[in-house]
Design a protein that fits this description.
There is one protein chain. The chain is mainly α. It has a single domain, classed as Up-down Bundle (Amino acid/polyamine transporter I). The protein is built from 17 helices and no strands. The chain has helices at residues 17-28, 31-34, 37-44, 48-72, 78-86, 89-119, 127-144, 146-177, 201-215, 221-225, 232-261, 273-280, 286-318, 336-355, 358-392, 408-423, 428-450.
């Protein structure tokens, strides 16, 4: 029997559908699309649109598995809470701390990048100062209440979405009406004129899936918001179904337009693909516009990361896997201690990033890389155990938001994620993860043993 202190209703249910959708979109659409897509295109060519469709299908199954559990039991601890309940103590401990550290490292990287973006306009401002100022601002917003966070994230994400839509619309004008190309429509020939749709063959397509999957990281934030959704039985299913196809639309649409306008082997050679699009239609401030967008994307990721980390620490504390102080909530229903601890930890990491050699930071990022895959694997396996438990107690028929094609979809998705891990060995920047992943597992296991059995 849960005590009053353990009721998920302690957290304010103030997040509306528009907040939840934008939170998930904001988590999944980041600087990887605006700056990193050129690297992915080099691997697969015009077939990058197919890469995102394949990756999107896997993400759909992962999100529906998480959504089924979130609708049945809408708590802020999300998949960590479900792992505790349906798998065991270590699974819950691992899920929670793995997710927390993953997002701390991602936040650390994004916050470090903020200083670089600010230097575009103010080159004399120290990068550490810019990072510190935005860390303080976003931390204060998160401390107010969940609605303040939701509003900030809504507008952060909206800027990114508008930028992508503008890029797609301008791209279509270039393709079919010759805007910025002396009135000469470009047509669709770039999709196959430079080595074919998959110029690097099936191997290039497979390798691209590694980077594609990491660009989807963050969609699981929907599960974290379940404990503070105003009407989780309606908003969570609606948000998951809409977010998945919107992410696919934005990624596939933007990158399809991009590879039609430019030969795939030229994309990204002169800077960001988005700058190329805006420059081609005669917008001289293209680089400045993009800088606003990527700055917003970095701040959005940090905002979401701080929110989710505070809630995850709160859940871990309720299960006895983190100090009890993290379970405390402010009068506004905000896990203040968890937010401040996560923010302070991120600040320390940013400072260390400036003081220690870059390779040390690269190793930490590698942990976040493999941790993201671990998160998804844990969700899929936990869902299998969740459904079996429901069947044993005769409650499977009461589930209202079921994962399609269960359990086949679970096993296919698991096989896909294992394949992605194996493929990481063939991408130099990702190979670190395969060496550090087992060490990270050992560290968490030691932490689990040290925390005692309480």
């Amino acid at each position: 029997m849960k005590t009053d202190k353990e009721r998920p209703d302690e957290l304010q249910r103030s997040l509306k559908n528009r907040h939840i959708q934008m939170i998930a979109l904001g988590g999944a659409i980041g600087t990887g699309l605006f700056y990193g897509s050129g690297t992915t295109i080099k691997l697969v060519g015009p077939g990058i649109s197919l890469s995102y469709i394949i990756g999107g299908i896997a993400i759909f199954f992962i999100m529906r598995a998480l959504g089924e559990m979130s609708v049945d039991e809408p708590v802020s601890g999300s998949f960590s809470h479900y792992a505790y309940r349906y798998w065991g103590d270590f699974a819950g401990f691992f899920s929670g701390w793995n997710y927390w550290f993953c997002y701390v490292v991602v936040s650390m990287a994004e916050l470090s990048a903020v200083g670089v973006y600010i230097n575009y306009w103010f080159p004399t401002v120290p990068t550490w100062l810019s990072a510190l100022v935005f860390l303080i601002i976003i931390t204060l917003v998160n401390l107010i209440n969940v609605k303040a966070f939701g509003e900030l994230e809504f507008w952060f994400s909206l800027i990114k979405v508008v930028a992508i839509i503008a890029m797609i619309l301008f791209g279509l004008l270039i393709i079919f009406f010759g805007l910025g190309n002396n009135g000469q429509p470009i047509g669709l020939s770039n999709l196959w004129a430079h080595g074919g749709y998959l110029p690097n063959g099936l191997w290039g397509l497979l390798l691209s899936l590694v980077i594609v999957m990491f660009s989807f990281g963050g969609v699981e934030l929907i599960g974290i918001t379940a404990g503070e959704a105003d009407n989780p039985t309606k908003t969570i299913p609606k948000a998951i179904n809409q977010v998945v196809w919107r992410i696919l639309l934005f990624y596939v649409g933007a990158l399809l337009v991009l590879t039609i306008i430019y030969p795939w082997n030229l994309v990204g050679t002169t800077g960001s693909p988005f700058v190329e699009i805006f420059s081609k239609i005669g917008i001289p401030a293209a680089a400045g516009i993009l800088n606003v967008v990527v700055l917003t994307a970095a701040l959005s990721t940090y905002n979401s990361g701080l929110y989710s980390n505070g809630r995850m620490l709160h859940s871990l504390a309720l299960h006895g896997s983190a100090p009890k102080i993290f379970a405390r909530l402010s009068k506004a229903g905000t896990p203040v201690t968890g937010i401040l601890f996560s923010s302070a930890f991120t600040l320390i990491a940013v400072v260390l990033n400036f003081l220690v050699p870059g390779k040390v930071f690269l190793y930490i990022i590698s942990v976040a890389t493999i941790a993201a895959i671990f998160n998804w694997i844990m969700i899929i396996i936990t869902h299998l155990k969740f459904r079996r438990r429901k069947q044993e107690i005769g409650e499977a028929g009461t589930l209202t938001f079921k994962l399609p094609l269960y359990p086949v979809s679970n096993y296919v998705t698991l096989a896909f994620l294992v394949m992605v891990i194996a493929l990481m060995a063939y991408i130099p920047d990702m190979a670190y993860s395969l060496y550090i992943g087992p060490i990270w597992l050992l560290i968490i296991f030691i932490g689990y043993k040290l925390r005692g059995t309480s």
